[in-house]
Amino acid sequence: MIQELNKTSFKKLILFLLITIGGTLVYFTFTDMPSATASGSVLVDKIEQSDGWGVIAVDPYTFKVYVTNFKSTTVTVVDGTTNKPLSVIEVGKTPYGIGLNTDTKMLYVALEYNDTLAIINTTTGEIIKNIDLVDPYDIAVNSKTNKVYVTSDKTNLVSLVDGSTNEIISTFDVQKPCGIAVNEATNMVYVTSESTNKVHVIEGSKNNLVTTIDVGKSPRGVVANPYTNTVYVTNQLAGTVDVIDGSKNEVIDTISVGNTPRRIVVNPDTNIIYVSNQISNSLSVIDGATNEVIDSIPVEQPFELMINPKTNKIYTTYSGHSILSIVNDVERNQNTLDDSKTIIGMLGAGAIAAIIAFFVIQKKKLKPEQKF
Q1: Average confidence (pLDDT) over 18-46
Q2: Is residue 219 assigned to a domain?
Q3: Among the listed ranges 156-160, 275-279, 366-370, which one has the minimum average pLDDT value?
Q4: 272 found inside a domain
Q5: Residue 50: which pLDDT band, with cuts at 50, 70 and 90?
Q6: Which of 8, 26, 57, 302 has the fewest CB atoms inside 10 Å of its own CB, making it the most exposed?
Q7: What is the CATH number of the domain that holds 182?
Q8: Residue 117 and residue 9: Cα distance in Å, rounded?
């Protein structure tokens, strides 16, 4: 009798262990795997200065950050490793928009109320040329083709500058152009128009306007992911981001973000998008694979925005104000988007093991006793 009880207890113990192991595996699958939605972002630094920060450009290879000082006549150079200002470059009155050719190391600065585009050699810190340009505002640079695109809402023009000659070689008619971005992989240029609620698409190889795309209310920021050929546009008065398929020039999704989204950047390596929500005092974090907001990072009055994809540091300012905020975001693991299959598999394995053990015990119970 005691021997039979021991056998039964042993079988129950085996069943319990199988269930426990299955449950433990599932638990660790849920708790230990990296999560794309877990916030690991940290506001690591704030740099304050009285001249009023403007727009930001980043060199991901030298880790230098260039920020215009709108209330002054300078561009501040920040060490992206230490987050400390290194130097200032004299450029002229009311510097606002800024763009960098990461190959030639030429910096382009829009002196908005000085009707000038300043071109600076970042190696020497010297201005090599000033180009007369009425009310220049936003700048996008294609480092591969050495072309520079500059918007001017006062003239309703986008000007194209040849970086090899530093001359304006073409202009494009765009009603109230605002934000501008280049997809270096496809050589396509995207320009937002706040007053018409459209995005204008320019083909860089032929220098012609190919189409316009209807988007949300008051579009401003725009960015392209060269790896996925996807374009993202912030709609300030709609509180949304429109997602555009670059191969079709069609809006394929609309994402709700915070209040008054201004600018937008993407880390193409992680396929993560960041949006500055000025009134919400936050950065929305979007997963480019699912087009879902996966996080919100608290930041005071974010407006202008730039990212170093190598360090995943995000830089944001509120134009004309005194604070440059630096956010260090974790590198989010995109493989976690497929981990649901792993979870289901582990659950299934644990359940099957428990069921098999149960039936083995039941079968043993149903066998007739053997008499010796």
Answers
A1: 51
A2: yes
A3: 366-370
A4: yes
A5: confident
A6: 8
A7: 2.130.10.10
A8: 85
Q: Dmax over Cα atoms in the chain, in whole Å?
A: 109
Question: Closest by alpha carbon to 209, among 143, 139, 158?
Answer: 158
**What does the alpha-carbon distance between residue 231 and residue 7 come to, in Å, rounded to a whole number?**
66
Domain with 152, as residue range(s), is 42-328
Chain-centroid distance of CA 334 in Å reads 14
- Show the tokens assigned to 309: 């994809």
Q: SS3 for the chain, per residue? A: CHHHHHHHHHHHHHHHHHHHHHHHHHHHHHHHCCCCCCCCCEEEEEEECCCCEEEEEEECCCCEEEEEECCCCEEEEEECCCCEEEEEEECCCCEEEEEEECCCCEEEEEEHHHCEEEEEECCCCEEEEEEECCCCCCEEEECCCCEEEEEECCCCEEEEEECCCCEEEEEEECCCEEEEEEECCCCEEEEEECCCCEEEEEECCCCEEEEEEECCCCEEEEEEECCCCEEEEEECCCCEEEEEECCCCEEEEEEECCCCEEEEEEECCCCEEEEEECCCCEEEEEECCCCEEEEEEECCCCCEEEEECCCCEEEEECCCCCEEEEEECCCCCHHHHHHHHHHHHHHHHHHHHHHHHHHHHHHHHHCCCCCC
Q: 83 falls in which pLDDT band (50, 70, 90)?
A: very high
Q: Which has the higher per-residue pLDDT, 348 or 60?
A: 60
CA 108 to chain centre: 22
Tokens read off for 132: 């007369």
- Measured CA to CA, the distance from residue 315 to residue 156 in angstroms comes to 29
Residue 256 to residue 292: CA distance in whole angstroms = 9
pLDDT in tens, 204-219: 999 999 999 999 999 9
Q: Is the dihedral of CA 89, 106, 265, 191 positive or negative?
A: positive
Q: How far apart are CA 142 and CA 163, in angstroms?
A: 9
With the C-alpha atoms ordered 58, 234, 244, 252, is the resulting torsion angle positive or negative? positive
pTM > 0.85 = no
Q: Please give the structure tokens belonging to residue 250.
A: 């069609």
pLDDT exceeds cutoff 60 at 96: yes
In a domain, 109, yes or no: yes
What pLDDT is recorded for position 163?
98
- Number of domains into which the chain is organized: 1
Q: Answer whether residue 361 is part of any domain.
A: no
CA angle 245, 249, 255 (to 5 degrees): 50
